[in-house]
Design goal:
- It is a single chain.
- The strands form three sheets. Strands 5-4-3-8 form a four-stranded antiparallel sheet, with helices on one face. The protein has a two-stranded parallel sheet with strand order 1-2. Strands 6-7 form a two-stranded antiparallel ribbon.
- The protein has nine helices and eight strands.
- The protein is α+β, with helices and mostly antiparallel strands.
Length: 244
């Protein structure tokens, strides 16, 4: 689509579609038109609008597979760091904003509170998480604050009203539990930075990430994840989000 910028003479790889970044899918094209993102000229306003849509209208949660196309993430209306990153990238590229994927292995402690007992013990020790780097005014900025939806984060803060500073668990690992807002904090990486074990670098597409790091999706195909972990994560997330 590339509505805001013209790259016909020299296409940038950071703007190209892929099987997972299927931004020409009718549902994605219709969403862009419905939200007016195809006519917004202010890139900062455009980025903020897409960011807030991914954060709050695609609920934080887990699917039975991570290597799914952006159009399916949109249809599901739920996603984790990997799948929400896929949809975020597709929307950014569709409107002409270059972006790429950044990936890391995380500490298992980020699931503390969502998983308990045997489900915590059998969960993978080093889950993967991705976020998005976008190019704005010739600089690359990392964004991960779109992963945890506002309703969920507010309920988590109400559950621990007196907690300050860093926080591990319930799907996050933040430096500032009271104010983990990426937009207001000038695009710094906040929502998972405290739980990073090892960074894996950048990938031009989610497809390239899964090709180079296949265990990121084979874990989701494991019987323990498909029959136990995924459902328990989602039940815990829904229970907390609806607690108010």
């Amino acid at each position: 689509m590339h509505t805001n910028l013209d790259f016909e003479l020299a296409p940038l790889p950071e703007l190209e579609p892929s099987p997972l970044l299927d931004y020409s899918h009718p549902s994605i094209e219709q969403l862009i038109v419905n939200r007016g993102w195809d006519v917004i000229e202010d890139q900062s306003e455009l980025i903020k609008g897409i960011f807030l849509f991914i954060r709050d209208e695609i609920a934080y949660g887990y699917t039975k597979s991570f290597s799914i196309p952006a159009s399916q993430v949109l249809s599901d209306g739920v996603g984790n760091g990997i799948t929400k990153s896929t949809l975020f990238m597709a929307l950014l590229r569709a409107v002409g904003i270059p972006c790429r994927l950044y990936a890391a292995r995380m500490h298992k402690i980020m699931f503390r509170g969502l998983l308990k007992g045997i489900s915590y013990r059998i969960a993978t020790r080093h889950p993967f998480r991705t976020w998005v780097e976008l190019k704005f005014m010739d600089k690359w900025y990392p964004l991960d604050g779109f992963i945890i939806d506002k309703a969920y984060m507010e309920q988590l803060q109400q559950k621990f009203p007196n907690h300050k500073a860093s926080f591990y668990g319930y799907g996050i690992g933040v430096m500032d539990f009271k104010d983990p807002d990426n937009i207001r904090n000038n695009n710094h990486l906040n929502v998972c930075s405290k739980a990073i074990e090892k960074t894996l670098g950048t990938f031009i597409t989610p497809d390239a990430f899964f090709s180079e790091v296949p265990e990121a999706d084979t874990y989701a195909k494991d019987l323990r994840y498909k029959t136990i972990i995924c459902d328990r994560l989602n039940r815990s997330i829904r229970r907390l989000r609806n607690a108010g």
